[in-house]
Design a protein that fits this description.
The complex is a heterodimer of chains A (361) and B (305). Helix content of chain A is 25%, strand content 32%. Chain A has nine helices and 20 strands. The model of chain A has no long low-confidence stretch (mean pLDDT 92). Helix content of chain B is 71%, strand content 0%. The longest helix of chain B has 33 residues. With 305 residues, chain B is an all-alpha fold. Classes of the chains: A alpha+beta (361), B mainly alpha (305).
């Protein structure tokens, strides 16, 4: 149990021109479940591997608690890692797999057996201790990988997309299992995923990365409600936020027939920009009558999910891409029909076109 | 002469492998009959020289000298043309037993030593980062092109300096040296195909390189080790040249004993056929003993693919 601190930590792969992780500053609190999320190649796995000691820290430091671990070999860092592909030792039984690290640490046989038993009980693996990984299902293998980390009682858990090899249903149930297990064990955890749903549901806080740069760290809800820039806005949330380009007039920004009033502060922030990025979440849209302000669109596809329906439509008289809006599931409009969508001002996010930064509401 | 024996045992190996190929797709029966027939024919074709050798080994000296082995098929049930004379002559020769022991004394260490050394080297080349690693590896593999005959004189001088020439360690070292480049090449390529995350996992688990090597890499490399062991054993067992040069004449191996058997002028070459078949037995045993290690999917269950 410890605080993990990245202090200006960078990683440059040999031969690469730009760093994979660029001056990462991040503090993970004691017992916190921190999720690193981002598109592929954003440096999230590299950040994790730097903490694990599998990737060199080119500059800056990483601390676990009071210790500077930047140059330490992995075994001295008191961490345990769960790999994406589990990396189980194929010729060893489940018990041996879980006990390997303890054996390496020189723990006695009986003590080892007790620890393995405890972990197996926690993960519901007691009946499989004598099996080899080959004879286990995907979900069981995943649990063995978890168990291998748990038995060590490390200061920090590192998880590198541990759920990405499970099928959709199992992923959802394992997701909550891991989250509750982590809360019970109260061990600082760094979890890497590309799936923003996993990030939102599991993390105490979520760090969004892009191109090796940290974009925003916050609680899931804050990320959702107040994304710091257009990238975070588009990345967090499913379906993604609609990002449209609005034209700036004296008093307001305009997208189609929709007018978004701009206050003085926002206008000053905009500077001379003639355009602004307007972000609207799918659920912020409401269907409105022809006399109310709104966006006219033609429906392309309607996705019915039972609880919700999502309407994909292209704006009339605009070359903007498709927009998506949530709709009441019991009265879905037909494909090809026109629809007029309105939105409340306070549900609109504005971002600078040039920097992508969030503009004050 | 050695070539014949080598050919014989390799053919047998081919045959065993080919049979596997035919049996493999048993599950899906939908008409691959043509393929099977072709494979079968190829097997038979490949077996022809071995069959010829086998038939000849059961014929008398006069018959072997006067007509081809295939003539027996005109009257295969004529038992008067079959004889065990060749076998009893070869086995009756009491030098043959000693030669077998000598061959084993040569072949077993000459197989194990290079495998062990190459496995260590391959591990380093695959998993350890050090300066000049790739260059060193290329040089190692490049040594494959050095013909072994070229190395004889310098090697004799070198070993002579240690007073080793004519002893078993001389042959072991020579075979180790000659086998090493290929062994390193095969094992490194195999190890490079092992899931990297397993090694990383071991690293995080606190295993030293030595530990990782013995507890993880060696057990997972068994198929490659077995393949190379068979290869090296067959090569050493069938080798005549290295044994002739580095071993004293009073400790002959099977191949050189066979050569002694047929006389200066090759007038007893009918004995060679029987001798070759007797010497094949050991490689066959080795082959079938190690064959079960050729298992695919040894790493199954380790990583989700």
């Amino acid at each position: 149990m410890a605080i993990v601190t990245y202090d200006q930590a960078s990683c440059v792969y040999p031969g690469a021109t730009s760093p994979s992780v660029d001056k990462l500053d991040l503090e993970i609190r004691d017992g916190e479940f921190m999720v690193l999320v981002g598109p592929s190649g954003c440096g999230k796995s590299t950040s994790l591997r730097m903490l694990a000691g599998l990737e060199e820290v080119s500059s800056g430091t990483i601390h676990i608690g009071e210790r500077d671990v930047s140059r330490m070999p992995p075994k001295d860092r008191d961490i345990a890692m769960v790999f994406q592909n589990y990396a189980l030792y194929p010729h060893m039984t489940v018990a041996d797999n879980m006990g390997f690290a303890l054996k390496m640490a020189g723990m006695g046989k009986e003590e080892r057996a007790t620890k393995i038993k405890e972990a197996a009980k926690l993960l519901d693996l007691e009946d499989y201790l004598d099996r080899k990984p080959k004879a286990l299902s995907g979900g069981q293998r995943q649990r063995v990988a978890m168990g291998r980390a748990i038995v060590r009682e490390p200061q920090v858990f590192l998880m590198d997309e541990p759920l990405s090899n499970l099928d959709a249903k199992l992923r959802v149930s394992t997701r909550s299992q891991i989250a509750s297990l982590q809360r019970r064990l109260d061990v600082t955890t760094v979890y890497v995923t590309h799936d923003q749903v996993e990030a939102m549901t599991m993390g105490d806080r979520v760090a969004v990365l892009k191109d090796g740069l940290l974009q925003q760290v916050d609680t899931p809800l804050n990320l959702y409600d107040r994304p710091r820039n257009a990238f975070v806005a588009g990345f967090i949330g499913s379906p993604a936020m609609n990002l449209m380009t609005g034209t700036v007039t004296e008093e307001a920004a305009k997208v189609g027939d929709l007018t978004i009033p701009l206050d003085a502060e926002t206008r000053s922030k905009l500077g001379g920009d003639k355009e602004v990025t307007v972000g609207i979440r799918p659920e912020a849209f409401t269907r409105v009558g022809a006399d109310e302000p709104g966006l006219d669109a033609t429906i392309n596809v309607v996705e019915e999910l039972g609880a919700d329906a999502f309407v994909y439509a292209s704006l009339v008289g605009s070359d903007e891409g498709e927009i998506v809006a949530r709709h009441d599931a019991r009265s879905v409009p037909e494909r090809g029909k026109p629809i007029r969508l309105g939105v409340l001002r306070e549900k609109v996010h504005l971002f600078s076109v040039t920097t992508g930064e969030r503009l004050p509401d | 002469m050695t070539q014949t024996a080598a050919a014989g045992s390799l053919r047998s190996a081919d045959k065993a492998m080919a049979t596997d190929t035919v049996l493999a797709p048993k599950g899906r029966r939908n008409g691959v009959l043509a393929v099977r027939i072709v494979v079968l024919l190829l097997c038979l074709l490949w077996l022809v020289p071995t069959v010829g050798l086998l038939v000849s080994s059961f014929r008398s000296e006069e018959a072997v000298d006067s007509s081809g082995w295939w003539t027996v098929f005109s009257s295969p049930l004529d038992f008067s043309q079959w004889t065990l004379q060749n076998y009893s002559e070869v086995l009756g020769e009491n030098e043959m037993g000693t030669a077998f022991v000598n061959s084993l004394v040569v072949a077993v260490p000459a197989t194990i030593i290079p495998i062990m050394m190459a496995a260590f080297a391959a591990y380093a080349f695959t998993f350890m980062r050090f300066k000049g690693r790739d260059t060193l590896f290329v040089i190692m593999v490049g040594l494959l092109v050095v013909p072994l005959q070229v190395a004889f004189v310098p090697l004799l001088q070198l070993l002579g300096g240690f007073g080793l020439v004519g002893t078993f360690p001389a042959v072991w070292l020579a075979h180790t040296g000659f086998g090493m480049p290929l062994a390193i090449y095969i094992l490194r390529n195999y190890m490079a195909s092992l899931p990297r995350s397993i090694i990383e996992s071991a690293e995080v688990d606190g295993a030293s390189h030595f530990r990782t090597f013995w507890s993880l890499i060696m057990p997972m490399s068994v198929p490659a080790l077995a393949a190379f062991a068979i290869f090296q054993f067959l090569w050493v067992w069938n080798d005549l040249l290295v044994a002739l040069i580095f071993l004293q004449t009073d400790t002959p191996v099977v191949t050189s004993q066979l050569r002694n058997l047929i006389g200066e002028l090759g007038q007893q070459w009918h004995l060679l056929t029987a001798g070759a078949f007797i010497s094949i037995t050991v490689p066959l045993i080795v082959f079938f003993a190690l064959q079960r290690f050729f298992v695919r999917g040894l790493t199954a269950g380790s990583v989700k693919g």
